[in-house]
Structure formats: C-alpha cells, structure tokens
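Handout, section 3.2

Students often ask what a structure token actually looks like in practice. Rather than define it abstractly, here is a full record for HDIG domain-containing protein. The first block is the sequence as you would receive it.
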Amino acid sequence: MNKYFRWIRQNLNNIYRFLITSMTIILITLLFPNVGNFKYEYQKGKPWMHETLIAPFDFAILKTASEISQEKDSILKKFYPFFKMDTAVVVNVTNKFKSDFDKKWSKFKNSDSYKKENHSNQTTNEQFNRLKEYLVLNLNKIYEFGITDFQNEQKDLGFKRPEFINKSVNNLNEVVSIKYIYTPKSAYQYISNQLKKDFPTAAYQGFIQDLNIDSYLQPNLFYAATMSEQVKTSMLSMVSISKGIVESGTRIVLVGDIIDDHTFVVLESLKKDYENILGSSQNHYLIVIGQCMLIISCIVLLFLYLRNFRKQILHDNKKLLFILLFVLLYVALTTLVLKFPKINIYIIPFALITIVVRTLMDSRTALFVFIITVLLTGFLAPNGFEFVFLQLSAGIMAIYSLPRLERRGQLVLTGIITFITYSIVYFAFALTQETNIADIKWVNFMFFAINCLFITFSYSLIYIFEKLFGFLSDVTLIELSNQNHPLLRQLLLHSPGTFQHCLQVANLAEAAINKIGGNPLLVRTGALYHDIGKMKHPAYFIENQLTNSNPHDKLEFDKSAQIITDHVKYGVKIAKKHKLPQLIIDFIETHHGAGKVQYFYTSFKNKYPDKEIDEEKFTYPGPDPFTKETAVLMMADSVEASSRSLKEKTPETIRNLIDKIIDKQIAENRFQNADITFKNINQVKEIFTNALINVYHARIEYPKENK
C-alpha cells in the first residue's frame, strides 16, 4: 500500500495531466453533434471530383433559407393583426356621459349666455333632448367603428401600423381598413367638427367645450397578441421546407459536372438526410467513436508539438490547463453559435486565440494551438474547407501584424488587418461559387466586422488570463520596467550606484538578446530588478561607496562574503513581498548562479592557507541560469561590474576582460542548463565588447580660453 501511494506521489503531475487531457477529450466529444459526416466534399461553381453520385434513398429537396424567407414574407403580407373590441367600454362611457351631461346642462340653462337666447321652457327641453341624443348617437357610432391607440399598441405589434386589421366583436371577425378605425384624436376631431356644423352658436359651443368630450373617447379596440401570434404561427407553419422529391436510384451528378445552384441544393438536401440517418441509426455509437478518435488525433498532435518544442509548457500544469481550456472554450462557443441559425459562425473571433496565446506564450505555440482549434471546429462548421481556409488566413495575419503587444492601439490595427483579410478571402470564395455578385451574402461582412471588434477587447482578456494562470505578458513587463515603479524608486533612493549598474546591465543584456534571439523586454526587466537585494546593506557594495572608506576592511572575509551572497536571498524576499512575477525572481536568483564570491574566497585562502574553508559561506545560493535570458544577464552583470575596475580602458583590455570572465563561467559550467550555444556566446561577447568600447571611448579635451 505504501508503495502504491509513493508511486502516486511521484507521478502526481503526470496523473494530473492525464486527467485534464481526458476530461477535455470527453467534453469536446460530448459537444460534437451526434450525426454522421457526409463523405463527399463539394463547392458551388466547382466540378464534382468524385464518382457519379446516385441517390441512395428517397429524399426531399430542401428549399434554401432565402426561398423560405421569401415565402414567409409573402404570407405575412396577407396577415392582419387581430384587435378585440371591449363592448363594455361604450356602455360605461355612455352612462357616465349622460349623468355628466344632465348636471352640466342644469348649470348651462341658468347661465347668462343661454338666457340671451330667450328660449321658452319647451324649447329648452327640446334643445336638451336634441343635443343629448345627438351626442350619445355620435358616441355610439364612433365606438361601433372602434377606437384604438396605435402608438401604445405599437410596442406589442412589433411592426409598422397595418393597413388592415381583423376586428373581433363578440367572437365575430371582420377585416376592416384602418381608415374606418378611429384614434382618440381623430374621434375628437370628427365629433368636434360635427358639433360646430350643427350647433354653431357661441352659447352651445361654450357648453360643448365645457363638456370635455375628449374625456369620453377611450380606446375600445385592443391588440389581441395571443390570437394574432397563434394565427400567424399557423399561417407560417403552412410553408413547406421542401420543393420536391428525389427518388432512390436517380442520378444526381456526374464526374466533372459543374455544381450549379440546383445541384448544390440537391446535394445539401442529401447531405442533411444522410447525416441524420447515420446519427439516428443503431450504429450511431460508431460515429461517436470516430469523432473521439479524430479529437484524440488533434490533441496528440498538440502534445507532440509541446513535447518536441515547448517542454516547459508541457510540464507546467497551469499553462497546459490554459491551452486545453482555450481549445474547449472555442469548441463550446462554436457549438452554441450553430444552434442559432440567424447568427453566423464567422462572428466568433478565432484570431483572438493567436493574440492571447502569442502575448502570454510565443508565436509558434499560438499558431499551433490556433491550427488545432480550427481543425476541431472545422468538423462542426457548415462549409468546412472554406471555414478552415478563412480562419487560417486571418489567424496568420493576426500573428504577423502583432509581433509584440505593447500598446492597446496595436489591437485596433490588428482588428482592421484581420477584417480586411476575412473580407478579401471570403469575397474570393464567393466569386468562385456565385454566378452573380448580387447573390453574395453581404451580411457576412457585418459578422466579420463584429468578429474583429471583439479582437480589440482582448487587452482585458489577456489581463484576466494573466492573473488566473500566472502568466507574464509584455504588457506587464512594460509596466514593471517603468523606472517610476515603486520598487525601482526605492532602489534609486537607497542604492543609486546599484541603480545605475542595473541600467547598464539592462542595456547590455537587451542588446545581446536582440542579437541572439529571445525576449528583450523580459531580460531588460529582469536586469533592472536583479540587484534589489543590495538595498539591505548598500554601503557594502563598491558602486554605492562615495568615499575611500570600505566597511569590509573591518570584517573577516567570510563575514563579508556572507553579506555579499545575502543580497540574492534578500532580493528574492523583497521581490515576493512586492509580488513580482516568478520569471523576474528567476533573474534575481540566477544572476550569480552557484558561483563563488571570488575576491573574498581568494583573499581568505591567501591569508589562511592551512585553514579548512567552509565553501558554503563563499558560495551564492543559486541556481545557475536555466534560460537564454538569465544566462545573458549573468554575463552582462559580471562584465559590467568588472569593466569598472579596469585601470586602462582600451578596446584590447575590454575585449580580454570579457573573454576572461565569460570563458571562466563556461569552464565552471554555469550555462549547462540554459538553451544557449557557443555561437550565441561569441555573439554576446562581440555585442558587449562594442558596447563597452563605446561607453569608455576617449573624449576630446576642450581647450582653455586664452585671457
């Protein structure tokens, strides 16, 4: 049992990688549709490159999306929305009007304006009955036609005001023109005009105005949303999705025949039925096995690339998890988008993969992860070849246009370049498939634009992934290399000489990495922070000593060595306190490697030749450099520090010094763990030599002015 648990502990990382890989494969397989794949590839406008195709079974010829859309539009033109009349409105309004009319007439007949008419009581009663009946009759007439407020109903209608409506009164429907339907405003205008014509005298007009007739004109026709939608759905359901049948044994296309519009539709119909039949057959589990094998093949290709070219990523669980999750995310996103026919698959920003992975890792890994993702999603895309070709073109251009992300404005340029690439390649495909430019699906260009708009938001996405998975992007390196960073400001304040030394080392290391290849921004940032541990005892380092007094003169050699070596440990402690990334801490730990403090070590041996030396006290904690960047920094640090002690700074002495220091580091095997070659080291020597010669070149002595 103990042996079993010990084996698990020893292989824990391998078990973890196996589990996350297996889960990724299983989840992608579940996301794939449970349908078979049509075994023929074809494109509209291209010749049929396979054997003569005979219909294997009876199948319906499906209408195109545009044909179905046209038929639906034609049917909708004959659809009139339903408005239901509320018969209780007119009863309530009429009763209220009669009651209000009686009260207001009592006041009106006693008014001075009416008394001037000198009507008898009989005439007054006649006028009362006549006006009241007149108004009630007109109100009933208006309500019989119907009053509706189209502005309020517009929200429910969801389309422009119709020319005709279905008026439903007591479950009896009648199609009427909206010219015969009143709105509250038009009803008031109608009755107001009638009253002015039939009761023109000022007294009656004043009374009519006092009646506020508009308050009795309320809508009694209301949009019947449920009934309208039911009828509309019923009408649209009558649209057939097919337009004929191809019987089994019918020849569909000959070898070499150009696939025209009709043949393309027939092939698409056969493909859909063929895939559905395979998916619903009893052997559909074979389809799942096949899909799983294809997915495993793609993942194996990815792992082979990582094993041969990026072992550090393969052995980094967080980075591997990030890559697998990114692939899974895009497969899931593609599956989701394909469930919505109105949304085109080209709205998904696949080029974003190259930008994010390139920024957080490197260009080659970004391209390979992108290719694997596109291949997997290509199995889902409606037109696989066109989809893969488009995405590869856009992704490669995205990588080319963004060699290094340093400013947010670069993403806008990348988005524009990606959109242009999508547009040109898609337009070229469309020209080969459509006989008429008008038939090109121009709406896809809108999806390309939205796709590229998403790319401009990748800056925030990079930040999120960087924090979640512990990456170090160029954007963060730029922020850290800013000399106004709080930690660098502290270094300048407490150890100004060390700060200047770090700047010189950064310049040397960056120039060398630019020549031999690597990440110049990373090595520059690492160089700026590599000696921050000297802030603990700045006076014990010669670059910070302003006088000839050296505090080491009062210490034993082993104590002095201890102070010198401790600046590495203290530097790591400060870096972790300020939450610097591990990649920057690596430069602090490795810039002296596991070498010795040679000056104090030699001095101790010379003073105490017979005394046994505790070499650990004179040795830096290490480790030795394990990347090209950390190796270059070690060389730059040693060369820059030693060059200051040269009494005679000539090209010859500088070259000899550089050769001596770096050759000694090689002899001590300081670079055996770093991916740097002898050719690289010779190039670094040449860069350092030229740089230091330029720094220490002779100056012109300015003549003194004769007095």
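Discussion prompt for tutorial groups: Residues 157 and 427 are 38 Å apart (CA to CA). How would you have guessed this from the sequence alone?
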